[in-house]
């Protein structure tokens, strides 16, 4: 007799991810999964994007953290609808959590929801959360060896932001090594050199982002 093999968490996760995608397609809302290490600049990038794009798109935010609501309070001060998700120890967000949160938003009033995933380069890459596309961050002080060490993150993302580019002169960070490595495992990846401190590179990124949001809400 054949033995039944069940890939429990992942299979369930994929079902929920597909349901979220269908729901958001119907409502014409784009979901962007933002990933990167703690301190890479996820909240800073979302903040810059809200400031640059809120006249064009109606934006909501889901803040994922193991504990606390610091980032959600920051988003609230920016005047966007926000829900804080605490994973109570889990190192990633699962699709089921996103599905449970969606009723807290008025989806008829939104174009895009940014999800700030839990800060690390490992687990979040393994879980689809119903996103339309992914954005990964790697900041200059983290080092240029991260593509080799954490390939799945760079393989599965649509865009890579090399953040804190204003710090490049202080670190031995070979940006070409990162870009070459990322393109080897993910030829379609788009890479942006960004500083949230000086604003450099942000207009290139927001132009790309705006195009992808339009594409996914009009699909
Ligand atoms: N120099 C510099 N600092 C940055 C930049 N982006 C973010 N930071 C700082 O890095 C720290 C962590 O940023 P945050 O957005 O909270 O990172 P998160 O943990 O990924 O959400 C904060 O002190 C930010 O002010 C940048 O482009 N350049
Ligand atoms: Mg943050």
What are the salient characteristics of this protein?
single chain, alpha/beta, Rossmann fold, 7-stranded parallel sheet, 38% helix, binds guanosine-5'-diphosphate, binds magnesium ion
Please explain how this structure is put together.
By secondary structure, the chain is an alpha/beta fold. It has a single domain (8-217), classed as P-loop containing nucleotide triphosphate hydrolases (Rossmann fold). The protein has eight helices and seven strands. The protein has helices at residues 8-27, 42-53, 70-77, 95-101, 146-149, 151-156, 175-185, 202-217; strands at residues 30-35, 59-65, 82-86, 112-116, 133-139, 159-163, 190-193. The chain has a seven-stranded parallel beta sheet, sandwiched between helices. The longest helix is centred in the first third of the chain and has 20 residues, at 8-27. The mean pLDDT is 96. The site of magnesium ion has 4 residues, from helix 2. Guanosine-5'-diphosphate is lined by residues 36, 38-44, 119, 163-164, 166-167, 195-197.
């Amino acid at each position: 007799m054949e033995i039944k093999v069940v890939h429990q968490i992942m299979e369930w996760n994929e079902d929920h991810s597909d349901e979220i995608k269908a729901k958001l397609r119907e409502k014409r809302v784009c979901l962007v999964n933002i990933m990167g290490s703690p301190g890479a600049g996820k909240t800073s990038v979302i903040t810059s994007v809200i400031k640059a794009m809120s006249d064009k798109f109606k934006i909501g935010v889901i803040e994922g953290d193991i504990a606390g609501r610091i980032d959600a309070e920051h988003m609230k001060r920016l005047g966007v609808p926000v829900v804080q998700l605490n994973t109570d120890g889990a190192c990633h967000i699962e699709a089921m959590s996103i599905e449970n949160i969606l009723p807290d938003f008025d989806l008829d009033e939104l174009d895009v929801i940014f999800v700030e995933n839990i800060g690390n380069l490992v687990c979040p890459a393994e879980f689809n959360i119903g996103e339309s596309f992914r954005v990964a961050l790697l900041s200059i002080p983290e080092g240029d060896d991260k593509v080799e060490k954490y390939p799945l993150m760079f393989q599965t993302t649509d865009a890579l932001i090399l953040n804190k580019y204003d710090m490049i002169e202080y670190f031995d960070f070979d940006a070409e090594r990162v870009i070459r490595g990322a393109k080897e495992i993910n030829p379609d990846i788009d890479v942006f050199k960004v500083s949230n401190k000086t604003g450099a590179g942000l207009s290139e990124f927001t132009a790309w982002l705006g195009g992808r949001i339009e594409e996914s809400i009009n699909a």
